[in-house]
Design goal:
Structural class: alpha/beta
Order of helices and strands: EHEEHHEHEEEEEEEEH
Largest sheet: 7 strands, mixed
Shape: globular
Number of strands: 12
Distance between the termini: 12 Å
Strand content: 25-35%
CATH architecture: 3-Layer(aba) Sandwich
Radius of gyration: 15 Å
Bound molecules: glutamine
Number of helices: 5
CATH class: Alpha Beta
Amino acid sequence: MQLTAAVVAVQGDVSEHAEAVRRAASAHGHEVEIREVRTSGVVPDADLLLMPGGESTTISRHLRREGIAEEVREHVAADRPVLATCAGLIVAARDAKDDRVDELGLLDVTVDRNAFGRQADSFEVPLDVTGLDSPFPAVFIRAPVIDEVGEGVEVLASWEGRPVAVRDGPIVGTSFHPELTDDPRVHDLAFFETGATLPER
Ligand code: GLN
């Protein structure tokens, strides 16, 4: 299948996410055209959406100001898959407990920004993730902690007793940066191993 993936390109690892989704797609025989999202009009044509890390205050305000936030809500309402990582997870969350973040409220979790970051700025751990048959090398960079998880949310991975990867309907959110390794399995989980068929357009 020929797919279109939109990558929010305000900040963060845009090309790394593009590469990871391309590799995950090709293992399923799909080709992916990548489109960077800075303005409205891109997300409505996308099958897949990636929300990279960065600074959640800046990203969330940009999405609102440009009218992209509403398009992301429509993408999720149409059951199209999203992978939201680190700051992307914070932006997608129900509550980031910080007035400077304009959350989308699509992922039924509350997060504590920079919570892991207070302990160590960045670290990498082998993480057991539901659906993967061996640990995933998870890189955390000033990462948020997920603290409250809504009823419909599946916890896919935890670190030190706290959820760090979750699935809520078409959205997978991770506290860590799956694009910073050459292991595309989290992108695969989010987009191609969902148990659902990709919605027809
Ligand atoms: N701490 C950042 C924030 O609150 C997220 C860090 C990241 O994306 N690596 O937005």
